[in-house]
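Q: Give me the 3D complex with alpha-D-ribofuranose.
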Amino acid sequence: MRKIIIDTDTATDDAIAIIMALRCKDLDVVAITTVAGNVDIDLATTNALYTCELCGYKIPVYKGASGPLKRKLETSKFFHGKDGLGDTGPHKPKGKIRKTYAVDKIISLLKEYPNELEIIAIGPLTNIAKVFKKDPEAFRLIKSLYVMGGIGEGKGNITEFAEFNFWVDPDAADIVLNSGIDVKVIAWDTTQLYGYLNEKNFDDLEKINTPLSRFSIDIQQRGLEYYKVKYNEHKIDLADPLAMAVMIDERDTIYKKSKVSIILNGEKRGRDSYKFIDSGKVQLATKVSRSNFLNILKSSLKK
Ligand code: RIB
Ligand code: CA
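A: Here is the predicted complex, encoded as structure tokens.
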């Protein structure tokens, strides 16, 4: 089994991605680490713990950075709801959050499982950047790093120039993407092309009719209202679940090797720009299997 860490700012789409990982027989989620982003750190952490309990799993959850490296935290409660789970709460987990700081736990796990541990980061990259700054040797023991973030070759979702995760903490994105290790990036452009749910997809989820499928539909209602008002569409883009589907099965994913620059300040803060070169360490996903995403999503909600 593949040992993985999920680093997350647990809100609606993160929760669905966590369910997909826990329901995947090939993945051993050794820890979930939380980071402030969609919601504040305490809420991200209790949401992560709650989601694991909903799946019937006791996964160690560790609290991480309460804000970006250099900036003030700006959340996306306008989209995910005040509780981060579509205002379907309150969601009070029964279990306790672990005491170790997430960044220190990631470092110790990397030393415990050198070149065996895979990380998927589905929130701002603050924790991952802190691991690199605190212990670059340990950081280089990451077997593979998948990142949901950036606009790729498209437009942003929080501003026209930037995607939320990179916008919240552009300094962390810059550090991680230029750390020198191979990073696979699933950005907002591929999310919009391959990771959306339309009315028919929601009808299919309704038919599953299990506690997890009902939960995953309920928590997205706030986001659907937002899309209805903003785009007049019954649709939603599931960034983190698409990234998780790529991590689970990337056979049909096409990547382009690149060198990335991140704009750190000003109107274009958080913008990622790509120079496609064979020696590039950042592999930008340019094509993702939509059927793989939908199949993994549906099968993870069935039990
Ligand atoms: O821009 C999409 C990303 O921002 C996703 O990770 C979503 O959860 C939010 O954090
Ligand atoms: Ca997220």
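A quick observation: The chain has a mean pLDDT of 98.
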